């Protein structure tokens, strides 16, 4: 969610008028009545997105205030406000660290255009910086979000893993950023000067075919690595015969190294919890023990509530640049509450698809509840009105229609999807309860939702291309 805007002015009328305009545009506002209060708020409230500061303050004003604000470390856009258009004062303010200048009386249109331009410029700068770091393989731990309690321990484990040369196992659901974390660990590790080689694990039950692939594809990859990282993605998909081949290789490798520094770091990524597969006899315990010398489990998005707003804002900034929709700056508080109620089985990937559609639908600077019809639909009350819906309409959300609008019987897959999605919504994302009521396993429920997520992704891609 976009942070608040600070309005600092000693004159109550000017401050109240400017704040009122901003609130009408959908922004959150905090106010400061003098220069000292302004500095205090900027020191304590590090989430402030913009600052609008009147140059006329009796305690600390003019360009001295602007300079002092910048000295405190406040890096967000700062716009100065004044009663007169003074070119000399404007130049001094810009030199001191302001980015724009507003003259009273400030209109809603002028303020909206100014903040819109500043927001998109800031977004482009951050996106270019992020993409450049990504392309230059310079993503670091500082680029990740780990404010939630659920993420703090995995984050610390990841930092410790970066200092080690031991094999690393990263477990987590799809869409949780497992490979991104693997790359960050690589570039923060002693192996940063070498390559990061990604190998997608494909199950091969035939030992002969597996042997051919090992000799023609896997070994050449391994032999090309000099002081780098090999990342095996979806290690849980390997058949037992493939696992045995890796066990033999890793044991011989360890014996050859004899306690010396390994030629490369082995990192593996798994969607399933391997401990459970070991208990079910689907994964070799010896292989599991070799892989988890360092072990990081990434929590799903639904457990990272304190990181959610930052992750959503980062995704919106990326979407704004990609789609060319500079009018969207963030998510309104009510819409963020709605997003937090969703279970997000597809994690960050699913969130990004939902936000992409919302950005295309949105008309204002902040995404609101009405920009997320796929999360509301007929399953919830109309958020735009406090008037209760009629009983027939309220009961209709429990009815699954067998016949479509053309008078044809709907397909079984369509009916099954509607039943599952309505059940998950009815139980507000409590997956265990939804699975129990449907009479299916929790893993089956997640698999079905993953399939629906993939379908939604295709629809989003088609929508993206059409736009």
What is this structure, in a nutshell?
The protein has helices at 12-24, 35-44, 62-71, 87-96, 108-135, 149-162, 178-187, 207-223, 240-257, 274-279, 285-291, 305-323, 333-341, 347-361, 373-376, 391-396, 412-426, 431-438, 442-466, and strands at residues 5-8, 29-32, 50-54, 78-82, 100-103, 168-171, 196-200, 228-233, 264-270, 294-297, 330-331, 366-367.
SSE order and pairing:
Layout: E1 5-8, H1 12-24, E2 29-32, H2 35-44, E3 50-54, H3 62-71, E4 78-82, H4 87-96, E5 100-103, H5 108-135, H6 149-162, E6 168-171, H7 178-187, E7 196-200, H8 207-223, E8 228-233, H9 240-257, E9 264-270, H10 274-279, H11 285-291, E10 294-297, H12 305-323, E11 330-331, H13 333-341, H14 347-361, E12 366-367, H15 373-376, H16 391-396, H17 412-426, H18 431-438, H19 442-466
Parallel strand pairs: 1-2, 1-3, 3-4, 4-5, 6-9, 6-10, 7-8, 8-9, 11-12
